[in-house]
Amino acid sequence: MEMKRIEADTLEEAYSKAAKELSCSVTEINYEIVQHPTSGMMGLFKKTAIIIAVKKVTPATTNEVAEEKPKEVTQPKVEASQNNITKTPKKQEKKIETEVVKEAAPVVENKLDTLMAKDDSIVDGFFNNEANDIKTVAEKQVETKSTSDEEAIIDDRDAPENKELSLEIEQKMQNLMKAGCFEIDTVEVDVFNGIAHIFIDGDDAALLIGKEGYRYNALSYMLFNWINAEYNLYIKLEIAEFIQAQEEMIDNYLKPISEHIKEHGKGKTKPLDGILVQIALEKLRAMFPNKYIAIKTGKDGKKFIIINDFNTRKK
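User: That's the sequence. What structure does it adopt?
Assistant: C-alpha cells below.
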C-alpha cells in the first residue's frame, strides 16, 4: 500500500493533493497530520501543512483477495447406465458450496490482517523515527555549549561582522515588538562567541514572560528557530530580569543537591521546565567538571538532570 508525504499551504489543500496523488476521493484516505499550518508574523515563522496519507483498504481489495479462494474439487464423472443414474439433491449441492466458502474465508481474513498490520507498522515506524529525531531548543544549545565548556570564552563582540549582525538582528527584533503591539522600549542585541545575547525590557515585559515563564519559553523557541536558521547563531534571551531571577532560584535549589553529590558521588534533579533545564545544567557542569552530567527524559516526557561518575574501562 502506497504512502505519500504531502505538503501544502493549508490542510484542505493537502487533503485534495493527497487524494489526487493516490487516485481516490478524500473520504478514501487515512492521514496523519505531521505539522499544522501557521501564518506567522511579519513573514516570519510561517509553516506549511504536512500530512502523511495512505489509501484505505476498501471492500474492493477484499474481493480481489477473495478471488484467490480455493477452487472446488470436482469428482470425476463415472459413466453408468441410464438405469443407475442418480441426481444429487439441490440441498446437498448448497451444503458443499457453503463448506468451500467457509474454508476459504479464514484464508482471506488472514491475508487482509497481514496486509493491514504491515501498513500500520510502516506508518507507526515513520512517526516513531520522526519523534526520536526531535530535540528541544534547550538541549541543542546545551549540547553545543558543552563541547566548548573547557575552552576560554572569547568576547569578540567588537568584530565588524558581529557588530553588523547585532544591528541587523536588533532592528528586526524592534520591528517584531512593534508589530506585536507590546509596550517595549528596550531591545538590545550583542553577538559574540557564536551567541546572540538579546535583552528586552519595557512596560509589557511581564506579558512576554507569562505565567511560570511559558510565554518566555515560546518566544525563545521561535527566536531560536529564526536566528539559528538565518544566521547560524544560538541565542540567550533576557526579558527584564527574568533570567537573573531564575538563576538565583536555581542556585538556591542546587545547594542541597550539590552537598548530596559531594557526599554520595551522584544525584539527580527534580523535573525542570524550559530554560531552567539549561540554567541548571550549566551550573552543575561548572560545579562538577569531572562528573558525567546530562539531561534525561522520564516516561511522562518531563526532563531532569543526572549527575554521576564517568564510566572507565581498564585496559
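Residues 169 and 189 are 7 Å apart (CA to CA).
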